[in-house]
Amino acid sequence: MGKRKSSKKPMVRKQNEPLSTTFKCLFCHHEKSVMAKIDRQAMFGHLSCKACGQKFSTPINNLSAAVDVYCDWVDACEELRVKQPPKKAKAAPRSRTPPPASALADDDDDDDIDHLASARRDKESKRKSARSAYDDDDEDDDVDDDRARKVARRAYDDDDDDDED
């Protein structure tokens, strides 16, 4: 005797998920705020952010989708970022009270630095005298003196850079 013929199960066709037309904004970082629109007649894709108002347009072809327009935007932003010069670190803030003109007029570099450092030390000593009697750390004095010297040296270097221009 032969086997029974088994009926084949019908093939289940997997549904393709439609590609997204909303994306995360590169500038304001809001989720699903960038809407992509494709104008097939004009052959242009347009992006616009609902949150920050950023807009972008790019030429497309017949096979382009909203994801392609978004990828072009990401690539364009990355290209601009690479072309920009690197940002400089913020300079230390200058002291609020400039040294007297007589101290800046002479050519001796050490006097200028000493003057700025001594002014800083005087200011720190006034602050320390106002502190409570419970704060008697000697290590703080050394750290403050070193910090004052560094600030004075930076201010002097910044003044030299300005004079060269």
TrEMBL record:
Listed Gene3D superfamilies:
2.20.25.190
Taxonomic lineage is:
Eukaryota, Fungi, Dikarya, Basidiomycota, Agaricomycotina
This one is known as Transcription elongation factor 1 homolog
Report biased composition (Basic and acidic residues) as residue ranges: 114-127
Q: Show the ranges annotated as biased composition (Basic residues).
A: 84-93
Gene Ontology CC annotations of this record? transcription elongation factor complex
Q: Give the UniProt subcellular location, in the record's own words.
A: Nucleus
Q: Which GO biological process entries does UniProt record here?
A: transcription elongation by RNA polymerase II
Chief localization: nucleus
What is the annotated role of this protein in its UniProt record? Transcription elongation factor implicated in the maintenance of proper chromatin structure in actively transcribed regions.
Q: Which UniProt keywords apply?
A: Elongation factor, Metal-binding, Nucleus, Protein biosynthesis, Transcription, Transcription regulation, Zinc, Zinc-finger
Acidic residues composition bias: which ranges? 135-145
Organism listed in the record: Vanrija pseudolonga
Instruction: Give the similarity note.
Output: Belongs to the ELOF1 family.
Q: Where is this region: Disordered?
A: 82-165
